[in-house]
Every structure is written in structure tokens, then in C-alpha cells.
Specification:
With 179 residues, the chain is mainly alpha-helical. It is 62% helix and 0% strand. The protein is built from 7 helices and no strands. 12% of the residues are buried.
């Protein structure tokens, strides 16, 4: 008696063994050109030269792992170039102390998609790809807009130093609000 999960895992003649074999061949493909890769969108064509003889003559358009496919197509340099904008937005959120509580849930969702990209290929779907970048850059901008109505201590100090240098009187400090 077969378990229903076996049918799902072996869908279209694939299965866990086929998945592992495709990843092994993709890693071999990457090792041939580790720095610059084989070119964007070339996986389906180039993989056919690295595809093991033990696999059926199936056409594989994706590596079954976005991480390994990016390394095979773009190399280390190109894969790092894809990571730089993500790290830039996250670094700005942390460095400028704008990592607010309301950003945690969307950032956790983005982190889950990135984690999934190591073992599957969610970014092969254009909707996931564009939604990832849209959400990431929206969160970066949203956190800035959320903070724009409050002047920072640094900008106030520069403003007062400029007024002092011009010989102008400083504006009076506002009285604390009373309830």
C-alpha cells in the first residue's frame, strides 16, 4: 500500500532522489565557472550538458533551488550583486534604528521566502519575485515615512548651530505638554 505522500513526492517522475541529483549536477555546473557563472537564463540549455546519464531525458528549466541556480547562472559575483540591495535595506533599517515592531511580520515573511529559496525555487514565479522586491523596498520606505514627521536630534542641533553662526536668536523651546 502506497502512502498518498509518495504520489505527491514522485509527481511527474521526480521525487527526492531526482531533486538531489539535479542539485548535484547544478553544483557541478557551478564549479565549472564559479565567479561569473554561465549567464542569466542559461540554466535550461547549459544544464543539459551536465545532466547525469542516470536521469531520464526530462528537460529541467529550473535547478530546484534558487540559490544554486543563481550561483550556476550568475556566479558568486552576480549572486552577491542580487544580495546587496536586500542587505542595504536591512542595514539601513538597523543602522538608523528604524526597525519598528510593525516591520517584523513582513520581514519574517521575506526571510521565509529566502530560506525556501535554498531548498526550492519560489523566485521562479514572477509574482513571488516581484512581490519580494516590492515588499522589501516598501518596508524600507515605509519606515522612513513613519519617522519623517519627527525631527531627529541631529537635525535640530545642526539647525541651531546654523542659526548661532548667523547671529540670529534661537527660537524659544516649546513648553512641555500638560494633560
Amino acid at each position: 500500500v502506497r502512502h498518498p505522500l509518495d504520489t505527491w513526492i514522485n509527481y511527474a517522475g521526480g521525487g527526492a532522489a531526482m531533486h538531489d541529483r539535479v542539485l548535484e549536477d547544478t553544483q557541478t555546473m557551478w564549479r565549472q565557472r564559479p565567479w561569473v557563472g554561465w549567464g542569466a537564463g542559461s540554466f535550461g540549455v547549459v544544464y543539459s550538458f551536465f545532466q547525469g546519464a542516470d536521469q531520464s531525458p526530462l528537460y529541467f528549466a529550473f535547478a530546484r533551488s534558487d540559490f544554486w541556480q543563481s550561483l550556476a547562472e550568475h556566479g558568486i559575483i552576480g549572486t552577491v550583486a542580487w544580495c546587496v540591495p536586500v542587505l542595504w535595506v536591512l542595514a539601513r533599517l538597523v543602522w538608523q534604528r528604524r526597525l519598528a515592531i510593525f516591520l517584523c511580520a513582513p520581514l519574517a515573511g521575506l526571510a521565509a521566502v529566502v530560506a525556501l529559496a535554498f531548498v526550492d525555487f519560489p523566485f521562479a514565479c514572477p509574482a513571488v519575485f516581484f512581490a519580494f522586491w516590492l515588499i522589501l523596498f516598501s518596508l524600507g520606505r515605509w519606515s522612513e515615512v513613519d519617522q519623517e514627521d519627527r525631527p531627529s536630534a541631529l537635525s535640530e542641533r545642526r539647525h541651531f548651530e546654523k542659526l548661532r553662526a548667523e547671529g540670529k536668536t534661537l527660537p524659544p523651546k516649546p513648553a512641555p505638554a500638560r494633560l
